[in-house]
Amino acid sequence: MKIQIQNLEPNPFRNIEKYPIDRFKVEALKGSIKETSFWDNILARPKPKTPGKYQIAYGHHRLIALQELGIDEIDIPVRNLSDVEMIKIMANENKEDWHDNPIAIVESIREIRDFLNAELEKYETWEEVEKYPNNLIKVLFSNTKGDWKKARDNGVGQTTILKFLGEPWKQHEIQKALSVITDGDFYNDEIVSEFETITDLDDFHSTITSLNKERESEGKEKLNYNEIKDLAPRVADRKKNIKEKRGKGKFSKPNKIESDIKTITRQELNGDESIYDSKLKDIAIDINRINSTANTLKNNIITLNGELKELGVEEIKNFPMIFDSLESFSSLFSATNRMMLFFGIDFKDKYKKLNN
């Protein structure tokens, strides 16, 4: 069906202002559309009670790409999708695009929780639920009146949401998202978006919860929102930095370098470690990696020297690539000396003494 771009709206269950947009993906889609034109890979439904308008189920990055390219009209499939189908498609699109991204997971679970709670409110009694054999609530609670009543009184939990979503969602992801959502006093997008994974966010949240319980037992005031908001980026940056250091280099073995969110949070809160100290730890990780690489290089050179000696080689001539190697060794020697000077060691002077 041919539809004007201006008549397409986002999935109503996707808060477009909160969900992240991957600019790399948008630019890649723009390049693909320019090269091969647009294929009908956006699915839409007629907007309820609004003739001429349509809501897309998925394809939000494609829609942005089309808008930025100035394309006026596209030909796409239109289906009479239910709210249940729209919200499931939204959640699974987010999962596919963003995987473990906290803001995408938290917002998806928030929308689903609110939607299911609203569905529960439509029925006053279990007898009303049973009148409609294929309704969503009856399916989710498997004809169990007790579970339905508990959910209606307290709100849906992780088990019900997982049953609604199915694969590829995991129960631990849903549980972690719910723990953040229900702590509405402190948590909003400013804090959630600081962390790389839902696990890091959950660790930070549980640490704050534990700290506040300790403070209450000691007669101190709990951490307020502004204090938590100030703490979150510092904790997230340190964890991210340590992850990056651990991931670099074949010989990276930063043992005894603390990376636990709980410990980092307490250190940052109590001032146990300044930013300066944190940077020094990062440098220590780099030095450990360089040291491992240097030892490997040293062993390789010793082996090569032994092989040359066994062959009785005294001098290599007409070997052009050796000049590149010598230039690299010279640069390495110079860079090493500059680094050693920070530690009060003149590498050039020490080298001279070793060879005298």
User: What is the typical, i.e. mean, pLDDT?
Assistant: 80
Based on DSSP secondary structure assignment, what is the total number of beta strands?
A: 5
Low-confidence stretches: 249-258
Q: Which CATH architecture of the domain at 2-81 is right?
A: Alpha-Beta Complex
The strands making up the biggest β-sheet line up spatially as 2-4-3
| Largest sheet geometry | 3 strands, mixed
Question: In which range does the helix fraction lie?
Answer: 55-70%
Question: Structural class of the helix and strand makeup?
Answer: mainly alpha
* CATH T-level topology of the domain at 2-81: Conserved hypothetical protein from pyrococcus furiosus pfu- 392566-001, ParB domain
- What is the count of DSSP helices, taking H or I runs of 4+ residues? 16
Shape: extended
User: According to CATH, what is the class of the domain at 2-81?
Assistant: Alpha Beta
Cα-based radius of gyration, to the nearest Å: 30 Å
Distance between the termini: 86 Å
Tell me the fraction of residues in β-strands, as a range: under 5%
User: Which series of helices and strands comes N to C?
Assistant: EEHEEHEHHHHHHHHHHHHHH
CATH homologous superfamily of the domain at 2-81?
Answer: Conserved hypothetical protein from pyrococcus furiosus pfu- 392566-001, ParB domain
